[in-house]
Amino acid sequence: MNFRERIHWIFRMLVLAFILASVAFLSALTAMRLAIRGREVTMPDLAGMPATQAKQILQGRGVGMTVEDRIYSHYPVDSVVRQSPLPDMHLKVGQNAHVVLSLGQQQVSIPQLEQINVRAAQVELLRDGLQLGEVSSTYLPQTEADTVLQQDPAPGMTNASSAHVDLLVSLGPRPTAYVMPMLVGKAAGEAEAKLARAGLKIAKLTPVEVPGAEHGNVLEQSPAAGQRVDAGTTIELEVAQ
Question: Using CA atoms, how far apart are residues 200 and 193, in angstroms rounded to an integer?
Fold first, then answer.
């Protein structure tokens, strides 16, 4: 075999090896896709189905069921109202489908909760078979802390979709605010006295060894000078040891 024939033979072997490698790669990729696809199931339509039946159907397909919420609806009590993933979408075996169950038709009107204490509001909700939803809060002058300012749904509503009632609750008057003074470089006793005059306290005092620093002087402060603070702010100082 001369040199040219040898070169052609090597080239043909390389082309053949490339083709075989490509076929093997595509076969492996196809097998992987089929394997992944084989571990997925198609979600059935669960709407209106009793929760126990829906759970059995899902378990038969290798997936679990998690109840995310319960809302009022025209479906019977404990029937599926909403689901995720939606019908005909795919879900991997071993994962959970998420459902919202029905509380049935609303039987009670939303009670009046505004201007009462949030704890009393919660008791009122539980007595009516309702639940406390999201609680937001805000400072408001001339109101006592924990007083309900607003509610959603509104009082007297009889067509609410959820058993949860969200509340806006007062934190009372806003605490007096101060501007954090510059304490770095001052003696720890002087810094503490300056804060005390504004009704502020040091929450944490950490001694730190710094060569050349004057003993007892403030090295670092948190919050930094100029920031807004009040009586509830956590103030930390590092002091030269």
Answer: 9
Name the CA dihedral angle for 107, 113, 119, 125, rounded to a multiple of 10 degrees.
0
The domain of 91 spans: 42-102
The answer as to whether 156 is a domain residue is yes
Number of domains comprising the chain: 4
Three-class secondary structure assignment of the chain: CCHHHHHHHHHHHHHHHHHHHHHHHHHHHHHHHHHHHHCEEECCCCCCCEHHHHHHHHHHCCCEEEEEEEECCCCCCCEEEEEECCCCCEEECCCEEEEEEECCCCCCCCCCCCCCEHHHHHHHHHHCCCEEEEEEEECCCCCCCCEEEEEECCCCCCCCCECEEEEEEECCCCCCCEECCCCCCCEHHHHHHHHHHCCCCEEEEEEECCCCCCCCEEEEEECCCCCEECCCCCEEEEEEC
Q: Give this prediction's pTM.
A: 0.53
The answer to whether residue 151 sits within a structural domain is yes
pLDDT digits (tens, 9 = 90+) for 82-133: 999 999 999 999 999 999 999 988 888 999 999 999 999 999 999 988 989 9
Residue 158 and residue 203 share a domain: no
In a domain, residue 109? The reply is no
Q: Specify the residue for token string 């008057």.
A: 173
Same domain, 56 and 92: yes
